[in-house]
Design brief:
- This protein has helices at about 5-20, 25-30, 35-45, 50-60, 65-70, 85-110; strands at about 115-130, 135-145.
- Strand 1 and strand 2 (about 135-145) form a beta hairpin.
- The protein has a two-stranded antiparallel ribbon with strand order 1-2.
- By secondary structure, it is an alpha+beta fold.
- It has two domains: about 5-70, lambda repressor-like DNA-binding domains (434 Repressor (Amino-terminal Domain)), CATH 1.10.260; about 80-145, Cyanate lyase, C-terminal domain (Cyanate Lyase, Chain: A, domain 2), CATH 3.30.1160.
């Protein structure tokens, strides 16, 4: 019996196949009927796909059953600390370092004692035209979870 392909290896194959076939992440998301940010994260190993979703991705990208099997595994969520060196990822951490305390205060003022869920959660991404340079719009949409004593 051979081991199941690690999610990182499956992700690398998916990225390579997607690029070589000239497909966008949006096209991949459309193929599996899921939001683009979620489907991209799933393809990169951060969420498990259903059997049907994994098979559609692999059919679209002409990848084998070993990749589909890996896509269905429960992930070990998180990030390789090395990825924090990437400027795009680092800017998100920087934005939260600057605005996180203010957002925490505003959440508590508006909702009370609690947190925003990252499990019951949606994230969206879009581009907005601006005369001074296009803007990246990222929306976090998490359920409020109040602390119960």
């Amino acid at each position: 019996m051979t081991p199941i392909m690690p999610k990182a290896d499956a992700a690398a194959l998916i990225v390579a196949a997607r690029v070589r076939r000239g497909l966008t992440w949006s096209e991949l998301a459309d193929a599996i009927g899921a939001p683009v940010v979620w489907s991209t994260a799933a393809a990169l190993g951060q969420h498990p796909m259903t059997t049907e979703q994994a098979q559609r991705v692999c059919a679209l990208l002409e990848l084998g059953d070993d990749v589909a099997e890996s896509l269905q595994l429960q992930p070990s969520r998180g990030m390789d600390p090395e990825l924090m060196r990437d400027p795009t990822i680092y800017r998100f951490a920087e934005a939260l370092a600057v605005y996180g305390p203010a957002l925490k205060e505003l959440i508590h003022e508006e909702f009370g004692d609690g947190i925003m869920s990252a499990i019951n959660f949606r994230v969206d991404f879009s581009r907005r035209q601006d005369p001074e340079g296009d803007r990246v719009v990222v929306t976090f949409d998490g359920k409020f979870l109040d602390y119960k004593w």
